[in-house]
Write a structure and sequence with these properties.
By secondary structure, the protein is mainly alpha-helical. Helix content is about 55%, strand content about 5%. The protein has one domain. The protein is extended.
């Protein structure tokens, strides 16, 4: 494989990686007393949808992450400390 082909392949991989979702899904990074996995899945999905409502507007990815986190907190979840 020539160098230009390798560079094109690398650029393609980088573009695909940029399209990957950045919202946390698993492992669960949130705790809520007596919540089930189904509760988490439902409320996580709702908050992801809420945060993505701001796509294409003048908000950064950091802003959208903040919208997601505030939504989860509003649903009674607390963020687990990273290990």
């Amino acid at each position: 494989m020539c160098i230009s082909t390798k560079l094109m392949a690398l650029a393609g991989c980088m573009m695909l990686a940029a399209c990957m979702p950045t919202m946390p899904t698993t492992p669960r990074a949130w705790d809520k007393p007596d919540a089930t996995q189904a509760d988490y899945d439902r409320e996580n999905s709702e908050c992801e949808k809420y945060a993505h409502e701001f796509d294409g507007r003048a908000f950064s990815e950091q802003d959208r992450q903040g919208f997601y986190e505030r939504c989860m907190i509003a649903h009674g979840w607390t963020k687990r400390a990273r290990r």
